[in-house]
Amino acid sequence: MTVLRSVGALGLAGALGGVLAAALAAPLVGGGGLAAMSVTNTFVDLPPAPREEPLAQVTRLLDKDGRPFAQFYEANRTAVRLGAVAPVMRRAIVAIEDARFYEHGGLDVRGTLRALLTNTQAGGIRQGGSSLTQQLVKNILVESARSDAERDRARAPNLARKITELRLALALEKKYRKDEILERYLNIAYFGAGAHGVEAAARRFFSTSASRLTLTQAATLAGAVRMPYSTDPSLGQEHRERLKMRRDLVLDRMAGLKQITQQEAASGKAAPLGIRLRPEPGGCAQSEYPFYCMYVQRELLSNPVFGNTERERQRRMARGGLTIRTSLDPIAQRAAERAIREHVSPEDTEVAAEAMVEPRTGRIRAMAASKRFGRNPGNRKNGPKTTFNLPADVAHGGGQGFQAGSTFKVFTLATALQQGWRFGDGFQTPGSLVPGQGYRDCSGKPVNDPNTRVLNASGEGEGGPHSIETGTWKSVNIFYMMLERKVGLCNVVRMARTLGATRADGEPLKEVPTFTLGVNEMDPVTVAASFAAFAARGQYCRPLAIVEIVGRDGRRTHVPPSCEQVIERPIADAVNHVLEGVFDKGTMKGQSIGRPAAGKTGTNNGYTSAWFAGYTPHLAAAVSVGDIRGSYRFPLQGVQIGDRYYGSVQGRRCRGRSGWSRWGRRCGVRSRAGSPGPTCHASGAGTRRGWRRRWPRRSARSGGTTRSGGGPGGCSSGCSGRAPGRLWSGRRRASASARTGCSAACPRTAPCWNGPAAARPTGRPRGGVTGAGREARRRPSGLPGVSRSCRWGP
Questions:
Q1: pLDDT tens string 316-338
Q2: Exposed end of the chain (fewer CB within 10 Å): N or C?
Q3: pTM above 0.70?
């Protein structure tokens, strides 16, 4: 019956539309018959329904646990189906806006006649008499406008616009059923306080959802639609009084239509408004984690995957109604923030920034900085806030970064090991070095610098005999300058590029003799991702913040990790062994976190900045400290950071303070629910037993062949069931070369060997190692780096 009535009403509306429109125009259009006939014809030959653009909706960012932490929107709107709107809300909006909505065909004859009388008396348009369908048409035209001129025409208070609305409303009634029109109206209407659509309005006004609205709440929202600005409850008590009057009017109207009883209306009118305004922050400045938010935002705006042009990507982010799940770990994030906050004040000109990256996926787990995000009072350059994304590169909103210092020595170390250098190999180093010869960039051009004299950084190394281990543990500048010359500057640069090293400003890496000393400006995200490759046993993964995107239609797009095995596993294992020694023999001595960990401190000559980059098998992190006003003009000497004075700041001075070390210590601690944390395991992280349970023992392989034959260390035929024993004698030092494959052996399991004898590790020193080499050969070597290698992953 309702459908038949609507069809009949639609026919009647078409027949009467021209007559009523002509009459409506009578006070303004003289001449009578011809004008009336012309207007009447416009309602017989109807245009197509108005073009509908997808409604602008909120794009939300979620952390890895599904909790929202930021949102972007051009209009605060979340579109919902009509079934997700409380029935009382549907009745309330129809009662006050268009009581005969289900009876007419897009044109409310009675309402239009009423408007006719009012407009005739006023000599102009003073009352529209618009049906709910006509209001929807107006909102569609405004929402779909592509220019200010189109938007102004859609709102113009003139006869031409009114006639256009009438024609399009009739066309819309032919296209959609009544419930579909009502659903579209409820999603497009503006309710005030920045809320577009009934779902956003329910959340904004009452901190609830559209499906849970009560009678009085529904009447309040229905009353706000006609006058959304003068009844905006966020603007003060006077506006709320007007909103209450509108609510009471809706309740009376519903009672008059027998939708509710007089008693229900009276009870509702006696109740207070009950406004519970819920803030709806938009943009990264109002996010709980603004630096991470900015990284995601810049990724969306710069990555062609999300749109062909930046304008298209911007529109999609602001209007798309996307749900973007990120890799942000709130526990790691809070640990990083707390660690920085305890030691560096936002008021300091020295700034600290940290990033945490997950090995084997590249997922960014945390991004933190010592300053708060935003503009300083009076737009001052220096203050407690910054608009730079300090943990990130320029492409993701960051600044120019800080020189990475000695953290870059790992690229030279990895290059040397790849070329066959072995534990204990080394040479005598002088007290200073002039890089006057032997350095060529990747174009073959000599880049020697005879006017530069390199010294060892104070407190980080000294001259004398050094092996690749001691040179790393003590961070000896001159040793690494000499090692870089021996293995080739270009080879080191290529290794750095392979492991994802790119300058923070996006420019090519500077290929100069002091490359290994970290003269290139870097950002923590990039450095953490590079070090994560060692934790992943040579697998580099591009930093990844976005895990999944859910469109407004519910379609899910998973964003997989982008990873590549860039160096062989044995090489990475050997690097891990050397960098583990930094914690018990080097610049991080005494700072164990209770589980396998490796890392490298970084200090620049002149103390322009300080770094630490470290990792466990589950998490890598990098933290930088420098002066935001300029690291060369304001070195880290004689400075007060937080409440502590420093004569000089070195990478090792930050040891044990990073959120990474806090997070590392948390592993093995059960959650409230009794289950292990996300990167921990249940058997007590940090113990050998727990580690083996986390990483099941695997057969060691070399070139795809399982080592099960005889070999050094007392191996006999078949490795299974062998008792723990010495892996390599001191004279058979473990080689980092892929040919040996010895680094895949698991704890307390003797590695066996069936390769050719010529490929077995030998004790021949490289370059005439003196005291350091002899000391290395005397060391027990239950690996240097072999027996513990499978700590770093399967």
A1: 888 888 999 999 999 999 999 99
A2: N
A3: yes
